[in-house]
Amino acid sequence: MTGLWVDNPGPRATVQDLGRHGYQHHGLSPGGAADLHAFRWANRLLDNGPGDACLEITLGGFTATAEATLRVSLTGADCNARVNGTAVANWRTFLLKKGDRIQLGVPATGLLTYLGVTGGWRTRSFCGSRSVVAREGLAGLSPVKAGSRLPADLPERARLPDRQLPHHLQKHYGMAPCLKVMPALSPEGLDPGDPVRFIHSSYRIGRQSDRMGYRLEGPALQSDGGVVSRGVSCGTIQVPGDGKPMILMNDRQTIGGYPVLGTVPVLDCSRLAQCRPGQSVSFQWADVADCQAERQLFERLLTRTTWDKHGNCLNQS
Amino acid sequence: MDIRPLSECSIVVVWGNEIDPALTPAIAGAVARIRSSLAELVTDVVPSYTTVTVYYDPVRIDFRRFIIMLRPLLEENSGNHEPPPGRRIELPVWYHPDAGPDLPALARACGLSIDDVIERHTTATYQVYALGFSPGFGFLGQVDPTIARPRLESPRVRVPAGSVGIAGRQTAVYPSASPGGWQLIGRCPVRLFDEQNLALLSVGDQVTFRPVDRQAFLELGGDALEAADRGAG
Fold first, then answer.
1. Which pLDDT tens digit goes with each residue over B136-175?
2. Do residue A231 and residue B52 have CB atoms under 8 angstroms apart?
3. Are residues B101 and B169 located together in one domain of the fold?
4. Contact A292/B45, CB-based, under 8 Å?
5. Distance between alpha carbon A62 and the CA centroid of its chain, in Å?
6. Which of A80, A243, A244, A256 shows the greatest Cβ crowding within 10 Å of its Cβ?
7. B92/B139 same-domain check
8. CA gap A268, A263 in Å, rounded
9. How many other CB atoms are found less than 10 A from the CB of residue A208?
10. Which of A132, A236, A255 to mutate to test the interface with B (most CBs of B within 10 A)?
């Protein structure tokens, strides 16, 4: 075993994977990486499994020291990372040698940065997942603290050269996004004009936004406040009694009783998760088939992207 | 019954829009059949009062084909996977103002004595309609209308683990300490969630409450030290 000693986790850092699936009927939140796009590429760059655990770092500020040689990857918000003071590029892999110190600044745009390691971080697994849902307070599943150690167990693997994701596949988070929404076909508890009002409005990300949900500030809708509670998905847009829409994210509760306007697909939730309070977002309707096709194309791109032994990308999609 | 996509990776099956205890057996049956027949495609099956939400892998199947596979499993008697009948679970509760700080005010608001409230809360048999809010938190109904009271206007920042609360015609035991707005009338020493067995309750179980005194509460493993913070009714 080897690992990374965390000197400073920054404002918030949690270990995340694809989430804790199959246990929502016990009331356990699924959790999981909020930006699936950046998370999946952090693993793909290292030839990891799709669900190996990465560190999800919020607003940079993270510093740590390698206990032994580690191959790591950085994706998501660009924090102008440095290793022993020398800049390293984002969306790529690099080697940390024993005693090397990695330091992340504050990103100019975006919110979440993923630090992957060969084989994934080997923190506690519970119900098949290492994802941390801080609110649930489960033992060994809390945000990373200063002075703690992230264990890694490097599997035997042919020595890889450093790899970088081609520029056209890297994401940048400066522009206000227009997110897709699959409309609820019979939105009980809402005014019939609300879906139209919502789709033609621009909203700002509210201050009380976190991994549980994103609040939207803008034209209020006419919610009657409650329906019979039912299961809610990542991206489900709920409208509480104050009329301010709320988009549920990975650490959501498993059921919800507010009227539902529609659902943002997971890959667009990934983009939303990179937005900060105060940023603008707008919306467009999409149908389920389009969102499924886009997800399938993303998976295909991940599996078809390969690198040669010199680290050159051979994009076969 | 109505089947609708909720997202690109989930479908919601709706049996009705009103809470009805008669729906729960049909919902529990559908859950058991979906779990056993579609295990390869399904990631989560979440029953609630009048619905089942089914989460699946959109990379392996598209929603039209998934609905075609799902539909026959929603009909009753469509397979040999009928669910076991809901279990009967009795939970001990220490009903006392020290354990449930809203008990005196709730009794006053209902025009009843504290003993009347306890009797009416323990006479009924409750059905588990849904789990959610926090790990192991079961929504139980229906509470006798004469002791049904709304949530506190200002929720507590911290409700101690084991607290028994009322919100409208629902009642519940908080499995872990959390914020919460239900009116607290007592405390239960039984753990409703632990990491070995996960949630004690499942949708469809029948729950009754049995009053115990402080001594029995402590002997059953209850923690009487932590007090709830003040809520505003």
1. 999 999 999 999 999 888 889 899 999 999 999 999 999 9
2. yes
3. yes
4. no
5. 17
6. A256
7. yes
8. 10
9. 13
10. A255
Q: Tens of pLDDT along A220-262?
A: 998 887 788 899 999 999 998 889 999 999 999 999 988 999 9
Minimum CA–CA partner of B51 in chain A: A230
Residues 6+ apart with CB under 8 A from A42: A54, A73, A74, A75, A76, A114, A115, A116
Q: Is residue B232 part of a domain?
A: no
Question: Is B8 part of a structural domain of the chain?
Answer: yes
| Contact between B48 and A24 using a beta-carbon 8 Å cutoff | no
Select from A23, A139, A254 the Cβ nearest to the Cβ of B132: A254
Per the structure block, which two tokens stand in for A314? 């051979």
A317 touches chain B (CB under 8 A): no
B32 lies in some domain: yes
Global pTM value:
0.94
CA distances from A185 to A182, A206, A225 (A): 9, 26, 18
Task: Quote ipTM for the complex.
Answer: 0.95
Residue B141, token pair as written in the block: 């109904």
* A95 and B CB contact within 8 Å: no
**pLDDT per residue over B194-217, tens digit each?**
999 999 999 999 999 999 999 999
CATH number of the domain enclosing B165:
2.40.100.10
